[in-house]
Amino acid sequence: MDLEPSSNEMKLQIDNNDGLGLVDYTPAIDGATPPQVTRKLNQPAELRLSLVADGPAFVVSGAGARIILALTDGQCVFSGYLTAPPVFEYLGWGEQGPVYRYHLIAQSDDTLLNEKRLPERCPFVERSAGNALRQLTQDLLPGVFDTSQVQDLDRLAWWASDPQKTWAQEAAEIAVQARASYYLLNGALIFSPVGTHAYALNESDPNFNPEGLKLEAVNTLANDVTVIGEIEPQAYVKDYFVGDGLTRKFYLSHTPFTKKNSTLFDEEYATSVLDPTLWSLADPAHVVSVGGRKLQIAGGTGVDGATVVQFVEKVELGGSWVIQHGDVQFSAASTGVLGGLYAGSISAAGCLAGFRVTPSATQSSIQALVNGSLTGIAITTVAGHHYVLTTRLYSDQIYRRQQIFHSSLRPAGNGWGGAEIAAEVRIVLEVHDIDPSNPGSQVAPSTVLYDGVIASAPDFCTYAPVNATNLQCAITFTRIIQAIDAQVRTALPGFGYSTSLVGPLSDGANCNITSTAELEFFTAYVPAANEAISVHYRSAGRALAWVINPASIAAQQRGFDNGDHAAVRHIKEPPPRTSADCEIAALAILDDSCNPAWSGEYDTWSDFLPANADDIFPGDALNLKIPSRGAVFSAIVREVYLEIKDAQDDRSYYKIKFANDAASPLAYEVEKSRVTSSLVVTQITNSQVGTNYLADLTEAEVALVGSTTINVDAGVAPPSGGGFEIRWSDAGWGPDNDRNLVGRFANQTFTLARLSQIQDYYLRQYNASSPPLYSRATTALHVDYPL
């Protein structure tokens, strides 16, 4: 290989923040210690170089100086900032006095962002990975970096940033979820799928350097994978109690699963402008203001949907939520929608659920607005009164979208999973009328304007606390609480069920659920004699999946080896939130773990980089074709180390480290800690994932409780040729085990024996296949009625 002279020149420029701008330091580069650039996948890049003073005008650069290493044709090799003062090395005495060598270390542009504290903000919901990364960048340094090369890629159903981490750590986490790479160079943020730029490394290429190639075949084969996920919602539990006029506490049969019983945000409008991490504002008539710890609205354009205060994130209609739209005081008759949830664009006609405000003489009328239509009773406001508007959401599904997992076969934009999860959502709209002159009104019961179920509810909604056609009011707070994922309903004899409000007494609630799984009614709301009480929630357990690849197992059989190569993976990122997610994660793992694992390093001069490669960055793909070593595979560059051997002729020596996903997974991170949960789980094949279970019996109910029997309605017709299997405990499912069997029924309604005051039944449906398929999750019916 002959190295030809180059017309392109490497140029080093440094801005010492002295007002002179970028100054050419190329002549001062120490030829004895060439500049070294280290790039690692989804980590800040680093530049190390040494300078020797080239004249009396030489200025010693200090920490914070801007440094750019680029070619004269404009191609940037490194840009960043000196992170510490230079290290001085005395070389002796020269013609103009002592001579020093200055050793400099610079970090890439990430350092500007890493020095800033990430803001406290709500989790990103239903945003693309690129959108989340752009937002994090804008939060810290608005408008500083060019983000036009940030691709959107896959959507993140839910992802929370952590102010205790740096921007670079968060960017790397987002990149893992999308199987992408990021880097900052010359003021631009680049975010794209790994392998976007691919280069061939072929031993038949005349520029190929065989001595510079090191390959290692790693034995990481796994065709039998157990995936451990998070604590998940499992059985659909329905507890039934009856009041006696005295008892306030009732003991739940299971500990309810809850995502996190916490306040998502509590906005008290303490600043002079709306917090941009919470709200976006459309206000063409300039009628919205913040002052006196209140959000004030003084009019509107008269057009529905034109004047809007909107939450910047989506609201997932999964689990239980309490949305308190504020303590509202009206100053005049008003028109608009307060506390609106919208499946699409913001308009009264498109409102899934909210509070419609209309004029009523000099006051206003508040009425429930559901699916764009007014429903239920209306409340007329009273001058001087305050109105706390609250929406309670109860979904029979905790999560509304599957997690997405990637592999080399399912890259960014084409991952496994991501499907929507259908659910019905009960919505309760309530108004708490507070009369400042009557302290008792603070704990008076709220008025329920609407209590109903929306079938096939959307998975995510836009939340707009204010849609002002012409509102005249002030709002003192807005709050979203992720509540305990349990729904309490009661029914007096001869009446239908209504929702009991769960929460603090000061919020107008009737009862609360304690951390010890107790349902406790407040004194004023003790259930009456023979009042029926129903509590619906999900139990909790460890998410698990065990998936095998039979084809790979068969191909690996050798003598006494049956071909099964097992591995257990406790996935940290992306988090498998359910057992279904664990199965999807297992598919992504098996995509790569059943294939040969390769890693290696390639050393070469810049003149002999693969064809069409002006430079190499981590995240680029290398397609290797080295038949003499039995190596034909694709890999992703993980690290690039280059030495600028000759700045004048743009000649660098590259060390390129690479690996495929089988050797080093790119799209997930494992948790090293061990779990104490049992790993007993049913084994399935990769072809069975997504097809191995019937629908859960989410609508199954106890229809009637007698002294010796109970009547059950499964909520759906039985599968053709199948039925409903009932057991005394949640175990032993299948046609060959009658140990704890209550019975199998081919009708939607059936009668079960009741043996004691407290009785538990566990239900799943099954079909006529051989072996039969069952529901994934059990429905648990718990009855605690006097005999």
Uncertain parts: none
CATH class of one domain: Mainly Beta
Rg computed from alpha carbons, rounded to a whole number of angstroms: 32 Å
Instruction: Supply the helix-strand structural class.
Output: mainly beta
Taking all residues together, what is the mean pLDDT?
93
User: Considering DSSP H and I runs of 4 or more, what fraction of the residues is helical?
Assistant: under 10%
Large-scale geometry? flat
In terms of DSSP E residues, the strand content is over 45%
Task: Jot down its keywords.
56 strands; 14-stranded mixed sheet; 16-stranded antiparallel sheet; Immunoglobulin-like; mainly beta; Jelly Rolls; 787 residues; Phage tail protein beta-alpha-beta fold
Give a quick rundown of the structure:
With 787 residues, the protein is mainly beta. Helix 2 runs antiparallel to helix 3. It is flat.
Give your account of this protein's structure:
By secondary structure, the protein is mainly beta. Among the domains are: 112-193, Baseplate protein-like domains (Phage tail protein beta-alpha-beta fold, 3-Layer(bab) Sandwich), CATH 3.55.50.10; 261-483, Jelly Rolls; 693-784, Sandwich (Immunoglobulin-like), CATH 2.60.40. It is 6% helix and 47% strand. The strands form nine sheets. It has a 16-stranded antiparallel sheet that branches. Strands 1, 2, 3, 4, 5, 6, 7, 8, 14, 15, 42, 43, 44 and 45 form a 14-stranded mixed sheet that branches. The termini are far apart.
